[in-house]
Amino acid sequence: MTAAAAEPTEIALTPTAHALRTPDAPAIIMGRGDVVTYRELDDRSARFATYLRAQGLTTGDHIAILMENSHAFLEVAWAAQRSGLYYTAINRHLRSAEVQYILDDSGSAALITTVSMSDVIEGIDLASIGVRVCTDGALPGFDDYASILDSNDPLSLDDSIEGREMLYSSGTTGRPKGVRKPLPATPFGDPASPTSQVAQGIAARGITAGSVYLSPAPLYHGSPLVFCMSAQRLGATVVVMERFDPVRCLELIERHRVTYAQFVPTMFVRMLKLSDEDRTAYDLSSLQEVTHGAAPCPVSVKYRMIEWMGPIIHEYYSGTEDVGATQISSQEWLAHPGSVGRPMQTCHIVGEDGEELPVGEVGVVYFDGGRPFEYHNDPDKTAGVTHPNGWRTLGDMGYVDDEGYLYLTDRQALMIISGGVNIYPQETENILIGHPAVLDVAVIGIPDDEMGEAVKAVVQLVEPDAASDALADELLSYCHRELASYKCPRSIDFVHELPRDPNGKLYKRHIREEYWRNSTTARTRLVQD
Q1: Of 86, 247, 327, 339, which has fewest CB within 10 angstroms of its CB?
Q2: Domain architecture of the chain: domains with CATH
Q3: What's the pLDDT tens digit per position in 269-280?
């Protein structure tokens, strides 16, 4: 096929188009320096797609990807995307039983993994997994990825159809569930397919074939994976960090002249905790836009990021389910601090009685519209997020102001009820994270005989050795200066590290369960109002 064949619209939004047009342009640059060109990305994904077809996988079948960030991760994802398969990226930090649950629930026919996951693999029953591949070495019972690429021809464009991701919720408030959306099963690169439409959406934000997009988060999460693949549909270079490190991140922005980057608020916090010398040592002038989402961003953190990087910070609120979304620019946010933006679909704030609430009142956030989805094998949960009027929710609480801007208060499942009063932990966390000694914080409700629940803060310090009763008192006073007493912690515990996944999701359920399970022995410092 000649370069002239790069123009047909049916392949325009694919790596294939860029492999034909600019074959030597970098599609992937790993943080450690490995480079994969568009020719290589297209060729490897097409060869692996042929292998999957030869193993009997057909349109609508599932594969599972259990890997650390690597170029092979994206090559495998593209192989599934171009061969009409569902692909499920699994959190590599899960234990064997947790991985087993996802494999069984998704009905995955193939598992692609790495040598580093061998301990987890040993605890899994692979009897139902007929296709097993290791991408970076020898793993007993697994085919070798490099050998597969050498022995298979690329899948032809005539045989290529759009597949789709089926990702699982993080399980921060319960057992993870697969978010299953209709399979496009349209020709590969079809501009009307939902996956192509996502790429067109980020193209509207200015990402083009000349852009350099930095992804510092794990690819097993929905947003990093979908954004990376969408950027590659547009021909951009994607710089993938193996793991997030704040100094390394700034170094990569300077080295590769990154134009777009996506973060989560915990990454902002870690970058802001760097010394002034570290933060000013790198040239960040290439950045055109910094996007963040996935978790609420404390107001104080957002102000500091805009002050540091300029009014290029763009925020979005959405979910894997695609029931609705918002977005907000720096300029809008400065006029509406704390907002996640105006909804792109009609938004409804709903009270406990199921009725819509007026402006300014807190309730469950529902959206009218969005794309179709279902929770895989769980019709009750699918029905549980759907209002009788057909609106759907991600389970977040919030309110809208009189200009239509949405403000989130917390997850519905994480609300604390103390003495009959609803307390939203996020508000308290946003205050405490602003203290210079605090690196991370979780606010939860713990058992209280009188009030039902008492507010507790579990704090990770910048300097762990600084933990003391005096510092706890200082943090409590700091909180009381900003919030009503009933919202402030009555006790503080210091921990070495809070359980977050690498994309910033806080496993608050795990923390809360520990305190409720050991409520009679938990170390508590009660503070009188």
Answers
A1: 247
A2: 3-233 (3.40.50.12780), 244-412 (3.40.50.12780), 415-517 (3.30.300.30)
A3: 889 989 999 999
